[in-house]
Write a structure and sequence with these properties.
By secondary structure, the protein is an alpha/beta fold. The protein contains twelve helices and eight strands. Strands 1-2-4-3-5-6-7-8 form an eight-stranded mixed β-sheet, with helices on both faces. The longest helix has 26 residues. The chain is globular and about 75 Å long. Pfam families: Abhydrolase_1. InterPro entries: AB_hydrolase_1, AB_hydrolase_fold, AB_hydrolase_sf, Epox_hydrolase-like.
Length: 318
């Protein structure tokens, strides 16, 4: 009797998840284009004038998010620059074709290929949070594509502790898919807003953030699993690349709040900037993890300064 009741409950939850997933994908439909790359495809949104002077700006989101979390910054920059927002593999509307695309190395390669197909020869790479790991690899593995690197509250170094037991369970081959296809969406709907508030603290979360950023897309089974797999593999990934940071040769700036409880300033940005030649660190007092929302004007000014420095100097008449 207990077994039958359990199976019936799981069946109801699975059906609710299936219906909920379809509803979420109708509510937050993709608004960009799909670019085929080796290992899968990437959903990108291309904003601003295509003929803008200087490098394009590429915005890449972190964990538990999609490209819409970077959209307010992108819209501000797009007034004068070409801006490309990208859903990382498995997030938003970029499919996760294989788990091998979860590593920062693989994701950096896919983004580089997509930029080539979009005709972007040189770009300022702007990354947030978990994407700091792949952002640091862009100038190392794809130096011809990168004109500068802007790191917003990035993850760059191994840390003490893990990424939460639930992420580890969801990332496992058998129990993970079962949970992702049954209880994650119904329970997660109640936790999305409190979780987002934690990311913004001590700043208040913008009133419409969850809706505007399409954060509930995370609760779809495949995306929730992809997010967990990314997080579970992150520590070892950054551990393997730390020794390469002194080889980064492009202009680099990191902006990090000293009240960030998700990615520590002292563990990540401070040692990263110390390792990268001529990199600059900007510490934001009493600012949490969402730097691009807490200080968008400062972020834009730093990007503008980097683009201005990257433009060819006018010839001097003799």
């Amino acid at each position: 009797m207990i077994i039958m009741l359990t199976l019936a409950t799981l069946a109801v939850l699975a059906l609710a998840t299936l219906v909920g997933t379809a509803w979420l994908e109708r509510r937050y439909a993709p608004d960009g284009e799909i670019i085929a790359v080796d290992g899968g495809a990437l959903h990108v949104v291309d904003l601003g004038p295509r003929d803008a002077a200087g490098p394009a700006i590429v915005l890449i989101h972190g964990a538990s998010a999609n490209l819409r979390s970077m959209r307010p910054l992108g819209d501000q920059l797009a007034a004068t620059h070409r801006v490309i927002l990208i859903d990382r593999p498995g997030h938003g509307f970029s499919p996760r074709v294989e788990d091998g695309t979860s590593s920062p190395t693989a994701q950096a390669a896919m983004i580089d290929q997509a930029l080539g197909k979009l005709g972007v020869d040189r770009a300022i790479i702007v990354v947030h949070s978990l994407a700091g790991a792949l952002g640091a690899l862009m100038p190392l593995n794809h130096p011809k594509r990168v004109a500068g690197l802007v790191m917003l509250a990035p993850v760059t170094h191994p840390w003490v502790g893990g990424v939460g037991s639930y992420n580890k369970i969801i990332a496992t081959p058998l129990i993970g898919p079962l949970l992702a296809h049954t209880i994650t969406l119904p329970i997660g709907l109640a936790l999305v807003t409190p979780g987002a508030r934690t990311a913004f603290a001590p700043q208040p979360m913008p009133e419409n953030f969850v809706e505007a950023s399409a954060t509930p897309l995370l609760l779809r089974p495949q995306e929730f699993r992809a997010n967990a797999i990314d997080l579970v593999g992150l520590k070892e990934a950054v551990r393997a690349q730390v020794s390469r940071y002194p080889q980064i040769a492009v202009p680099t700036v990191a902006l990090h709040g000293d009240a960030d409880t998700i990615a520590s300033l002292e563990i990540h940005s401070r040692p990263f900037v110390a390792a990268v030649p001529h990199a600059k660190l900007i510490v934001l007092p009493n600012v949490g993890h969402m730097v691009q929302y807490a200080a968008p004007g400062l972020v834009v000014r730093e990007i503008d300064a980097m683009i201005a420095a990257a433009r060819p100097k006018a010839a001097v008449l003799q």
